[in-house]
Sequence to fold (261 residues):
Amino acid sequence: MQANFFARKRRNSFIYYVLLILATVAAITITDYNVVKGFTSIPKAAEWAFQNFYPNEKAMKKLPAIMDSLIETVLVSIAATTVASIFALLFAILGSNTTGVGGVVSLISRSIATLFRNIDVAAWSMILLFSFGQSVMTGYFALFFGSFGFLTRAFIESIDEVSNSSVEALRATGASYFSIIFQSVIPSSIPQLLSWILFMVETNIRQATLIGILTGTGIGFLFSLYYKSLNYSSASLVVLVIVAAIMLIEAISNYVRRVIL
Fold:
């Protein structure tokens, strides 16, 4: 019986590997992608980057403008994440198995969170371009909707994992619904909730750079502008500033987690 189980598992794994290989070969054939040329071109690309993609003295004069765009990108990311976290907490409380009111309300809360979470931020940017055009609002709402969906799902799981026993204890004493929420659920879940918010801030700052290329705003737009005008020195300075900012924000986020959580 056990031998048949493992034999069936090996056969299924073999079939999946064969299907994966066939799908890969079909994709390469249909797109006429030259795998050998792709890998052999990597050294040439690296050589070109070392020869052309570095900031020079002329590019350094653009540093103040680049820093202004970086600050705008970071602030928009933080604002979108924090506001989305407030709405996400409300929907998570309504959708949680522990604190939810159940029935249609919980179903609607979870469905909205699933819908927003499964639409990528880049897709939100393209959708919102029709309404707001290339503006800061497009990037802000794209990050807001993406953060809202992700955080709602994460908050629901955090509340369900942490608060179940304390909620049952308070219910046994006859505590009201809002007393349970504000005296048990939120205090016991706050470390996990803050951790998710910090994670989302980091993620949004990374994504905001790519969204800026689509929406024509922030530091992503500056990179696109310099790159399309063949100003590789300034474009490389933008990349270095983005990498430094992401590393700094990650270090701050880790420090906050250690101190507060």
The two ends are 49 Å apart (CA to CA).
